[in-house]
Specification:
By secondary structure, this protein is an alpha+beta fold. About 15% of the residues lie in helices and about 25% in strands. The longest helix has 17 residues. The radius of gyration is 27 Å and the shape is elongated. The termini are far apart.
Length: about 160
């Protein structure tokens, strides 16, 4: 009985597999309507040809949007360059003085770069208490690109000393 059932199953599979043949070229005629934008996605808007925005909320909705606080240490040139992306050839968008407080929100895969958020206006005004709330000290619902009110960019992790988080 088992042999009969096995033979019948194999026969059904063979008949089903050979019943209809479809060529890839048959389906291509219907899909050639959108050659300019086959996926229908909108074009990405970036600030420069190599810019990579800083992401916040990578720890999840139970943690602060940026999980660490750091302080800029000494740099060979005197000020730490802030770049638009996590690599040496990226565009320089700002520079930070030693002692500047920054929020570390993300890191590059090789841990060489920190994606930071910072309030440059409060660098000398922290004693007066007039610093701006950058909105990264509390949780956010989902991961997203940082969009203000403070500045953001990428710095070499070697020149940032973590002080909290």
């Amino acid at each position: 009985m088992n042999r009969t059932l096995l033979a019948a199953s194999i026969l059904c599979l063979a008949v089903t597999g050979c019943s209809e043949s479809t060529k890839v070229s048959d389906d291509l005629a219907d899909s050639s309507d959108y050659l300019d934008n086959p996926t229908g996605r909108a074009e990405r808007v970036v600030t420069g040809p190599s810019a990579k925005p800083v992401r916040i909320g990578e720890g999840g909705p139970r943690f602060d949007a940026c999980q660490s606080v750091g302080e800029v240490g000494g740099h060979v040139s005197g000020s730490l360059p802030v770049l638009s992306a996590p690599f040496d050839s990226a565009e320089k968008i700002d520079s930070l003085s030693p002692g500047q407080t920054v929020y570390v929100c993300t890191r590059s895969h090789d841990q060489q770069w920190f994606g930071i958020v910072y309030d440059k206006q409060s660098a000398g005004a922290t004693e007066a208490g007039s610093s701006v709330d950058c909105g990264v000290s509390s949780p956010v619902r989902a991961k997203r690109n940082y969009d203000g009110p403070c500045k953001s960019g990428w710095v070499e992790s070697l020149f940032v000393v973590l002080v909290a988080g």
